[in-house]
Design a protein that fits this description.
Blueprint (H helix, E strand, L loop, with lengths): L1 H6 L13 E4 L7 H12 L3 E4 L5 E2 L6 E2 L1 H12 L4 E2 L5 H11 L7 E4 L2 H10 L3 E5 L6 H6 L6 E3 L2 H9 L1
Parallel strand pairs: 1-2, 2-5, 6-7, 7-8
Antiparallel strand pairs: 3-4
Amino acid sequence: MRQPVLAAGLTVVTDWRQAAWVAVGLDREATWSSLRDAALAIRAGARFVATNSDATLPSEEGELPGAGALVAFLRTATGVEPTVVGKPQVAMFEQALARLGIIPAQAIMVGDRVETDIAGGQAAGLRTIGVLSGVSSAAAFAQAVPPPTWVFDSVAEINLALFE
């Protein structure tokens, strides 16, 4: 996250007392010290923003802690709810559509998680494809209200269905 923050002309501080914002995303190098500093900054009044709330992310070894796990740690430690700017927030989808110059009817959200990928796409008016190669199961997709428009075993299967 450091690169986009710097590219936007913002400054990254190392002293939590100087922080106006705490931005949390997937940090594979998070330490007790960095989480401590983030919690102290939030408790001191820094705005708390999260890229997404996915508690886990799929891997070949199984589900690993995701950005949402760090967000949950800080939410628990501070009692402060973050502003989530990524999925499932509609604004993220609207910005993507605007950048592509298309309307919701021309786009499809593909995702492996009912509560963020599919829910966010649906809230933005997109058709959705659930893929079973990640977090949510076929049963979870079937129980979603509403369910995804389509469900495929994998992204490769989507490619076969659309182009072959």
